[in-house]
Amino acid sequence: MCGRFTSTATPEELMRRFGVIITENLCPRWNVAPSQSATVIILDGLQTAAISAEWGLQPTDDNKTMLINARMETANEKPTFSGAFLHSRCIVVANGWYEWSAPKTPWHIQLYDGGVMAFGGLLYGQTDQQRFVIVTTAADAGLADIHHRTPLTLAPEDYDVWMAGDAETASCL
Question: Which residues are catalytic?
Fold first, then answer.
């Protein structure tokens, strides 16, 4: 889980939902794939900001696979994710994600109204080359028939806790 997602929010929607001002032209993205750029929301000092970051951590010598997701249950313990979980949590802006069930049937999961979603994410890198992974959690009963994992989807009242709260509180979301 989550190997593809959609990100079609307009600058106006991002302003309403996250309080960020978008100065660049955003193009709707109906099939964001690993290694592609997407909009993420970060805490920059005391202000939220929207930036573009690449999805996934590049493979290392030990690991030949690009890492695109982190399990919520272990993100604060695993060496690859623990530093970012403590210090660099972000929000991945999405309108839905894709899952596939057998035999290769695609599903687009979204909110009832098709609105903007906020996935929990972890941010890596310097300002000139930022990357992110999506945090996942166990799927609820309704989605578990399609896939056992789902993005950590944050409610608006949890945004501040996710981005600026302590790791213990964030791990309870």
Answer: 2, 99
